[in-house]
Design a protein that fits this description.
The chain has about 500 residues and is α/β, with parallel strands linked by helices. It has 19 helices and 15 strands. α6 packs parallel to α9 and α12 packs across α17. Bound molecules: uridine-5'-diphosphate-glucose (UPG).
Length: about 500
């Protein structure tokens, strides 16, 4: 436990995306458990409503306060109620980023109210997302501190932020390049860059939003990162090198049930409601039932996070590759790129007869169902913690990465956006826990490549990578568990140090 504090107030400001809201909630829970601070998470009305309903259902979150910050999407060219990146095309995402700048005035009012309510004492600090660098100015104006929390890993964050701060990469002749803050041996490749950064020149829409925000985060009093020292030694060093501020590696912020040293494959409803305020596309029990029918380490889980999808032609090839692999699988499906991601799936997006073939049970031949198709949202944690799950075909979002490796499940990487390609690079080069299938949502993937990647991850062929990948993934799992072990874990100590620092004048 951290030293006793005087029960001040912490205000948290997550970016409006599930991949950010989820770790912010987890951070709030962790701080609350280890201190007496009052915590208020501030966000737009739709997001607050969802967060509240999650907190109501979870006793460990009940004491957390939520504050609505007034937000008018239509004033920024967004459809009404569009307050989250979920199912949002990239073209709208930039609008949401610019629109988020309008949260400054409501945040100032909130901080002023808290200050007034607490006899002129401002909040102890504002913990804000890396996309909200402006919160450092708000904190300063109220005579309090600001800490930046990156919901991504240290390696991925350092590469992402450093590349935006050191533009341009446009017209780069050679494929390989060094990224400031990283050692020379750690060369990056042009193919790691998503289009928006490859094409950025400092004066494009993304540069004009991201660069000032990242520069402002460097004025905060320190950074928190959702990782641990032993899990990402190179990334942690790179992040300190880049931001030149104190960095507390307080992660992975995962539910206790998933990190606990518990090898049982049973289901748990307590960890399934993972998307604030939205229902699951399938009951966790059905996934567990499917997984129970297959041998340990045999099932491939396919899911691309909360906001990514693939092209229609890749969807067909992925389906054909999964079929050709002859391995059992669970696939979380969303409409392909170019279609409304929140709409119903259509048969025409898959090879003819695919669903029927893979979900058929042949009683005579005693053949089990090969595939479980989940619409929109799966109970990912339950699936990953089941001993039958053998590999995760993932977009390499940081939460998915941590969730998978915390269970010793190796990754078949298909990074698509943000810092995902850097996560995949680190997992392949530094950790040896990932085979990369493709880079970019629009990369053309063939069924044979899919089949081979699956075989490399779950197959046992002599000379294949499977065994080594699984061993490395188990090593990663141990590092994660060690970091969050009460009393001795590096992340537990880092959290206590951070909390101690908050009460130090
Ligand atoms: O069917 C699903 C799909 C997702 N999830 C959960 O949703 C989260 C998804 O997070 P993540 O894997 O990080 O993916 P994104 O939603 O794409 O996350 C965004 O935020 C991350 C950092 O916070 C970044 O690493 C990513 O690049 C960025 O896209 C995870 O907790 C998953 O368990 C489910 O429970 N069921």
């Amino acid at each position: 436990m951290a030293p006793s504090d005087d029960g001040g107030h912490i205000v948290m400001l997550p970016f409006m995306a599930h991949g950010h809201l989820i770790p912010f909630l987890a951070l709030a829970r962790r701080i609350q458990r280890r201190s007496r601070f009052t915590i208020t998470i501030a966000s737009t009305p739709v997001n607050v409503r969802r967060l509240r309903s999650t907190a109501m259902a979870d006793p460990t979150l009940r004491a957390i306060n939520f504050a609505e910050l007034a937000f008018d999407p239509s004033a920024h060219g967004l459809p009404s109620n569009t307050e989250n990146t979920e199912n949002m095309p990239l073209t709208q995402m930039v609008d949401l980023c610019y629109a988020s700048l309008s949260l400054r005035a409501p945040l100032e009012s909130l901080v002023a109210n808290i200050t007034c309510r607490e006899d002129g004492r401002p909040p102890v600090c504002i913990i804000s997302d890396i996309f909200f660098g402006w919160a450092a100015d708000v904190a300063k104006a109220f005579g309090t501190r600001n800490y930046t929390f990156t919901t991504c890993g240290a390696y991925g964050t350092s590469a992402y932020v450093s590349m935006w701060l050191h533009l341009p990469h446009r017209g780069m002749e050679s494929g390989k390049f060094i990224v400031p803050a990283f050692p020379e041996r750690c060369l990056f490749d042009k193919s790691h860059l998503v289009a928006m950064i490859r094409e950025a020149d400092g004066d494009d829409v993304w540069s004009r939003f991201l660069r000032p925000q990242f520069e402002l985060t460097l004025n905060s009093s320190g950074w928190l990162c959702n990782t641990s020292e032993e899990f990402e030694p190179l990334g942690a060093a790179a992040l300190r090198n880049l931001v030149k501020l104190p960095v507390w590696t307080i992660g992975p912020l995962l539910p206790d049930a998933i990190v606990r040293n518990d090898d049982s494959s049973g289901s748990s409803t307590s960890i399934s409601e993972h998307r604030p305020g939205k229902p699951l596309g399938i009951a966790p029990e059905r996934c567990v039932e499917f997984l129970d029918e297959h041998p340990p380490g045999s099932v491939v889980y396919v899911c691309f996070g909360s906001q990514n999808t693939i092209t229609e032609s890749n969807m067909k090839e992925l389906a054909a590759g999964l079929e050709a692999s002859e391995r059992p699988f669970i696939w979380v499906m969303r409409p392909p790129l170019g279609f409304d991601m929140g709409s119903e799936m259509r048969d025409e997006w898959l090879p003819p007869g695919f669903e029927k073939r893979v979900t058929r049970v042949d009683e005579k031949k005693k053949k089990k169902k090969r595939g479980l198709l989940v619409r929109d949202w799966a109970p990912q944690l339950e699936i990953l913690r089941h001993s039958s799950t053998g590999a995760f075909l993932s977009h390499c979002g940081w939460n998915s990465t941590l969730e998978s490796l915390s269970q010793g499940v190796p990754i078949i990487g298909w990074p698509m956006a943000g810092e995902q390609a850097y996560n995949a690079k680190m997992m392949a080069e530094e950790m040896g826990v990932c085979v990369e299938l493709a880079r970019g949502a629009a990369a053309e993937v063939s069924r044979e490549e899919v089949r081979r990647a699956i075989e490399a991850a779950v197959g046992d062929a002599e000379g294949g990578k499977g065994k080594e990948l699984r061993e490395r993934a188990m090593e990663a799992r141990e590092k994660i568990r060690k970091a969050v072990t009460e009393g001795e874990g590096s992340s537990v100590k880092a959290m206590d140090e951070f909390l101690r620092n908050l009460v130090t004048p």
